[in-house]
Amino acid sequence: MYTGLIDLPWWGYVLATLALTHITIGSVTIYLHRHQAHRALDLHPVASHFFRFWLWFSTGIVTKEWASIHRKHHAKCETAEDPHSPVILGIKKVLLQGYELYRKEAQNQETLDKYGHGTPDDWMENNLYNKHNKLGIALMLVVDLLLFGPIGLTIWAIQMAWIPVNAAGIINGAGHFWGYRNYTCADASTNIVPWGIFIGGEELHNNHHAYASSAKLSSKWYEIDIGWLYIRILASLKLAQVKKIAPKLRLNINKTVCDLETLQSVITHRYEVMTKYALSVKKTYKAEIARIRLQASDKLDVARIKHWLHLDENDLTEQQKSTVGAVILASPTLHTAYTLRQELAAIWARSSVSKEHLVKQLEDWCHRAENSGIAALQEFSQRLRRYA
User: Fold this and answer.
1) How confident is the model at residue 102 (pLDDT cuts 50, 70, 90)?
2) Residue 176 DSSP symbol
3) Cα(142)–Cα(122) distance, integer angstroms
4) What integer pLDDT is reported at residue 320 of this predicted model?
5) 363 CB neighbour count, 10 Å cutoff
6) In this predicted model, what pLDDT tens digit does every residue of 162-194 receive, in sequence order?
7) For residue 136, with 0-12 CB atoms within 10 Å meaning exposed, 13-18 middle and 19 or more buried, which class applies?
8) Residue 293 reports pLDDT greater than 80
9) Which of 121-125, 320-324, 377-381 shows the lowest mean pLDDT across its residues?
10) Which residues, including other chains, have CB under 8 Å from residue 20's CB and lie 6 or more apart?
11) Of 105, 123, 94, which Cα lies nearest the Cα of 68?
12) How many helices (H) and strands (E) does the chain have?
């Protein structure tokens, strides 16, 4: 019986499978995601074509389709037009049918035309990778069987399921449903775990949605983005050039008045600003809601109310607005904290207002926060003035 060109112990086949699937994950996160979809880095033609070939060989993914669908996901995130939002479609559907959702959107020519600009349009793409996208995975099956014998069929099957399960299912599903958030984005994105190794760093999905054009997905000292490690290695070999990474927040302890620099920094770090605000008022919200709950005749859904208080008013339903309105009416402290939160978020939404006027509004906001009588808001405002 033919046993393949390579004879390995059982653990050798496991390692070989992990190595092959990890190359595929690396190709998706470096080439498709960070390079093609978001232009966060440039790749040398040699590196770019290797990734393009490997994806054709191991997944049959067409670059234009993947980049278009992902760009549309960011443009229409958590709306009815989002190709794969668990908020809209349900977590079960995205986890278990993520690949089917991807294939369905890939047939939408309007999506490809609108979001597919800048993707490869050369002879190889049009006459091989796109035209015969199933040929690559058939060749991969032949190669696996030649190298590993009958066990090669199992290895190939795992390779075929790797991206549909991990990218189309886990990242698109769990990455908008479970985990922690460093940044209060307008969408539901989460960091599934802080160590982005198994899925190439894509586990840090909330970080990515906060700074979509960053080539680096980790932001905290304890977070690991293995894809960023590979990019740095490619850069050292002159095979990649990083164009953008997320800006680092700087504080000037000597600043006591808001200026144009403060405004620009606050707008740049707006997701972090709102996250810090939520953390600052967390204890205040908890204490006030507990007090109101004791006095209320109706049972309050504390968890939901605390969540709604951290959202933009426009993201609430009329019923939710009514509930929040009743709660903050019963607490001047909650009313002040909630109102100031809405007004702060509105500052960077006013694109038609001059920068000088926005600086004045920011300074006025800080003045009111510091005179609110709420210690948490006073401390937050003093820190905000130091943004540089």
Assistant:
1) very high
2) G
3) 27
4) 85
5) 16
6) 999 998 999 999 999 999 999 988 889 999 999
7) buried
8) no
9) 320-324
10) 58, 155, 159
11) 105
12) 20, 4
CA distance linking residue 98 with residue 92, whole number of Å: 9
Q: Where are the extended beta strands (E) located within the chain?
A: 41-43, 195-196, 224-225, 240-242
Residue with the larger pLDDT of the pair 350 and 22:
22
Long-range contacts of 69-76 (CB under 8 A, 24+ apart): 69/102, 69/105, 69/106, 69/111, 69/115, 70/32, 70/33, 70/37, 71/37, 71/115, 72/105, 72/111, 72/114, 72/115, 73/172, 74/209, 74/212, 75/115
Degrees to nearest 5, angle at CA 212 with 361 and 190 = 90
- Nearest in space to 93 (alpha carbons), one of 172, 207, 28: 172
Cβ atoms of residues 155 and 17 within 8 Å: yes
Three-state secondary-structure class, residue 43: strand
Contacts 24+ apart (CB under 8 A), 137-140: 137/57, 137/58, 137/59, 137/60, 139/57, 140/57, 140/58
The conformational region for residue 109 under phi > 0 = left, psi -120 to 50 = alpha, else beta, is alpha
Collect all residues with Cβ–Cβ distance below 8 Å to 217 and sequence separation of at least 6.
Answer: 196, 201, 202, 204, 207, 208, 225, 227, 228
Q: What is the CA radius of gyration of the chain?
A: 25
Mean pLDDT of the chain: 92
